[in-house]
Amino acid sequence: MTLNAWIKQFLPRGLYGRSALILIVPVVTIQLVVSSVFLQRHFEDVTRQLTGALALDLHLILDTLDAAGPEAATEVAEALAIRIDTPRIAPEDRSRYFYDLSGAVVIEVLKAQVPGVVGVDLRTNEREVHVVIDRGAQGLIALTTTRRRASAPAPHQLLVIMVGTGILMTFVAFVFMRNQLRPIRRLADAAEAFGKGRRADYHPSGAIEVRSAGRAFLDMRARIEGHLEQRTLMLSGVSHDLRTPLTRMRLALGMMEDGPETAGLVHDVDEMEALVNAFLDFVRGEAEEDPAPGDPLVLAAKVAENARRGGGTVELVLPANGALVPLRAMAVQRAVMNLVGNALRYGTNARLSVALIERAVRFTVEDDGPGIPEKHRADALKPFMRLDDARNQNKGLGVGLGLAIAHDIARRHGGSLVLGKSAGMGGLRVDLTLPR
Predict the structure, then answer these.
(1) In the sheet where 313-317 sits, what is the strand order?
(2) Does residue 55 or residue 42 have the better pLDDT?
(3) Hey, which residues does 144 pair with through a beta bridge?
(4) CA angle at residue 245 from 242 to 248, to 5 degrees?
């Protein structure tokens, strides 16, 4: 696996997620870098300087104590705002809170610069520095002063303000970003709905580029709808013009005596009618109905019953429980009927099964016919494509539109139609998958 593919596994796939990542990562990175540099170069340096000055004051008190005695040392300590106390911590104790970052520097400097320091208490009273010094024969002595003498006050305030401001500004930026991305999401929803045969209300909004893309989409949708409407009207007229002479021909053939020539003409008329009906089914699409909740199990049972009524052998396999699925019932029924009809035309037995998966419903039609070689399966989905080498064309009237109609209906639902080989029956297997 390449580095690029490995990184993509952990990146969000949605537009909102990626935009938020682009927004948040620089802010967090800047805060981490600034915090690290500030703590190391400012707080640590300032703390070392202040604590070093405090160490000099402690040296002065201790030297005065050795030279002039306790009273003189007390006077010097009071002048330096340092209090001489009784030790309140055990020797070798370094008492501080884990989040007191500057406290570690205070303890380190005092231990290094003041001889005899055995403990520093920064925890009992966070506002004071309590230093315990071992004076040998004189015993332990404790010197206490305000924390301001050793480190800058409230060093965490900058971090809190910076983090709080960063979170607030990130939230504000995310709100603005969401308002900018909403028109793109609406455009994507409208395009997706149009691809599934639905017309969603959409008005261009947002930035200039998004508005331009929205207007281009509306123009494209209008041209496609106009083309489809024109095609439907044209073929409706062709259907009317063709059905009238076909009806006259059928009436004339009915009045003629039966014979080989008459039978051939009747066969030609039947084939022409089948061609016209199949062609109209292909161009009709699904404009006559809107998606509505329907039970695919009931639909499959109806298709199997109609096929059995026509003399076909169809095995029906259904799950125990059904579910309502938004679909165009007439269009899906037409697609499944075409698949079952093809299975019975090119095979002896057919099997129709329905599977309800997490986000889709799958209709599977299998037969025991010759099947379709893998190299010809893509061509089998094209309109008017008849695979003479793969399927027996002497069985029934086929015009090469059954799979094309089912494929078109699947795409209009946002689904797919996949051809394969039936493992159980040995013939063709067709999976019609529709989203739920």
Answers:
(1) 313-317, 349-356, 360-367, 428-435, 416-421
(2) 55
(3) 83, 130
(4) 145
Q: Under DSSP, is residue 200 helix (H, G, I), strand (E, B) or coil?
A: coil
Handedness of CA 20, 21, 23, 29 (dihedral sign): positive
pLDDT tens per residue, range 166-206: 888 888 888 888 888 889 889 988 888 887 667 788 899 88
Q: How many other CB atoms sit within 10 Å of the CB of residue 84?
A: 16
Which three-class secondary structure state does DSSP give residue 315? Answer: strand
The encoded tokens of residue 232 equal: 């439907």
For 374, the token pair is 């893998």
- In whole angstroms, give the CA distance from residue 45 to residue 42: 5
C-alpha–C-alpha distance, residues 435 and 277, integer Å: 28
Q: How far apart are CA 63 and CA 114, in angstroms?
A: 11
* Amino acid at position 133, single letter: I
| 3-class state of residue 244 by DSSP | helix
CA 177 to CA 209: how far, in whole Å? 15
Residue in the structure block whose two tokens are 């404790």: 142
User: For position 394, what pLDDT does the model report?
Assistant: 45
> Which residue has 């993509």 as its token pair?
8
Angle between helices 70-79 and 44-68 (to 10 degrees): 150
What are the structure tokens assigned to 340, written together? 């079952």
CA angle 420, 422, 426 (to 5 degrees): 125
DSSP H or E segment with residue 364: strand 360-367
Distance separating alpha carbons of residues 365 and 384, to the nearest angstrom: 21
CB 114 within 8 A of CB 58: yes
Mean pLDDT of the chain: 82
Task: Note the pLDDT of residue 215.
Answer: 93
Q: Which residues pair with 367 in a beta bridge?
A: 350
Please state, in angstroms and rounded to a whole number, the distance separating the CA atoms of residues 244 and 267: 17
SS3 116: coil
Res 282: pLDDT: 60
Query: Which residue matches tokens 């078109």?
Result: 408
Q: Position of tokens 């002048």?
A: 79
| Radius of gyration in angstroms for the set of CA atoms belonging to the chain, rounded to a whole number | 43
Q: What SS3 class is residue 421? A: strand
Give this prediction's pTM.
0.53
Q: ∠ CA(283), CA(369), CA(356), 5° rounding?
A: 65
- 361 near 433, Cβ under 8 Å? yes
